[in-house]
Specification:
- The chain is α/β, with parallel strands linked by helices.
- It has a domain of 71 residues: Ribosomal Protein L15, Chain: K, domain 2, CATH 3.100.10.10.
- It contains three helices and six strands, in the order αββαβββαβ.
- It is elongated and about 90 Å long.
Length: 152
Amino acid sequence: MKGLDDLKPSEGSKQKKTRLGRGYGSGKGGHEAGRGTKGQNARSGGKQRVGFEGGQTPIWRRFPKVGFTNPNKRHPEWLNVHQLNRYSDGEIVDPPRLKEDGLIGNMEDGLKVLGDGQLRKELTVKAHRFSSGAKEKIENAGGNWEVVGDKE
């Protein structure tokens, strides 16, 4: 039976690393060692940093900083009331059900129901937030809306 101690790489799959600048006999040695002749890039440490433009003011300093991204902004999942017409009268529609049916995705910042379209079904809708138009349309259709969870 073979064991882990019998494992070895395939023939020819491993090559020794070429050691540069260690004499002519090394195959990549002698005077230039594959770096061309003279100049900044032939020296050790002789590469320019990323974004260096030869001393010209780089593009990232030529333009001013603009705007602000609020790290605390919330991005709730949202749903319009006309999308709820797929359910039957009297059903309870809550976030897990909506996610299961593919109407919403990841709800890190909760679910907000918006009031676009017409609702023709009498439903109990549970969500983290509702727009005033959505509340009105759910009530006009004979249903109820209910705030759940603590996602502001």
